[in-house]
Amino acid sequence: MPTGSNVTDGCGEEQRFLDYLYAITYTVIFIPGLIGNVLALWFFHVYKKETKRAVIFMINLAIADLLQVLSLPLRIFYYLNKSWPFGRFLCMFCFYLKYVNMYASIFFLVCISVRRFMYLIYPFSFTGRKRQCDVYLSVAGWVLVCVTCLAFPLLRIGNETRGAGGEDKCFVDLPLLDIGLTSSIVTVTAAELLGFVTPLLTIVFCTWRTVTSLREPHAASRDLGEKRKALKMILTCAGVFLVCFAPYHFSFPLHFLAKAKKIASCSQRRVILTLHPVALCLASMNCCLDPVIYYFTTDEFRRRLSRQDLVDGTELQIFCTKDLLDPDGLGSS
Q1: Which pLDDT belongs to residue 88?
Q2: What pLDDT digit, counting tens, does each position of 208-255 carry?
Q3: Is 316 helix (H, G, I), strand (E, B) or coil?
Q4: Which residues sit opposite 7 in a β-bridge?
Q5: Which residues form a coiled coil (predicted)?
């Protein structure tokens, strides 16, 4: 770790602590994130025809996580060396990927929750055409996320791209453009409402309606089992959402204003600029936690990983048993 002051300025964050925090966090999540998401994509590709609707959203969620994971080695290198020798474009692209992953993950977590809820309430309304609609919805989601997340790198394009020693800066060390207090408030408010509040309310609604469906009288025991399984998946999505993204979005408005020096108090700015990166590291943990959704909420995924499929010659023998139709498997996820 390069030597230097622990604090960037009198009101700045503890720079050395944050450098170690980022480097350690990204190192810890890299291997499990890589293995978990590659394994998930392999499973969804091999058994895609056996599954139903939510698999489309799970594939896209795994792709979003994998894109972020693949950029982590470069992030680790930067925070250990505090220099970026890979060019300006790659810096901005990796910076951009972080936010694309975050909001794509939020989008697809919501889609998984809604699809599981809708399948529970209207189990006979889904056809092959619905699956095609999920593909279109996923494409629209990627376009929306990729376009809106362009604001993050655009707000970091400035002239101060080199440190005091002449080294190239990247990621959190990139300067933030001053767009004025009014524009800052409008930008942050839009990001919070569209990227966090609306998805949160959607997941809360799906959870509430699933819980109330469990209390409906005269429900068959099988229906109750399916509803409990649906609730397990929705609650898992909600748990990942809250653990990874709630701290970031609670601190994001304050960090944006502190970084733009719109908060006058030096002590307040210093606390905000130090705590927000902790929330950002929690947001990065979704790369590891998203595969938990696949493993702990889908029996079929768990069974495939717990035993080796039989191989007859060069052909994989796929177990087409009745459990493939069980809503606890991917068929109802």
Answers
A1: 86
A2: 887 787 776 665 555 666 667 777 778 888 888 899 999 999 988 888
A3: strand
A4: 14
A5: none
In the DSSP assignment, the letter for residue 217 is T
160 is written with which tokens? Answer: 């101060």
CA 79 to chain centre: 22
Beta bridge partners, 315, equal 312
pLDDT in tens, 244-298: 999 999 988 888 777 767 776 777 788 888 888 889 899 999 888 888 777 665 6
- List the beta strands (DSSP E) in the chain: 311-312, 315-316
Enter the tokens of residue 109.
Answer: 């977590």
Angle (CA) 62-64-173 rounded to 5° is 140
Q: Do residues 36 and 115 make contact, with C-beta atoms less than 8 angstroms apart?
A: no
3-state SS string for 91-133: HHHHHHHHHHHHHHHHHHHHHHHHHHHHHHHCCCCCCHHHHHH
Tokens of residue 297, six digits? 């909420």
Burial of 314 (0-12, 13-18, 19+ CB in 10 A): exposed
Q: Which residue has the tokens 């602590």?
A: 17
Ordered DSSP codes for 160-204? --B-TTSPBP-GGGS------HHHHHHHHHHHHIIIIIHHHHHHH
Instruction: State the pLDDT confidence band at 322, using cuts at 50, 70 and 90.
Output: very low
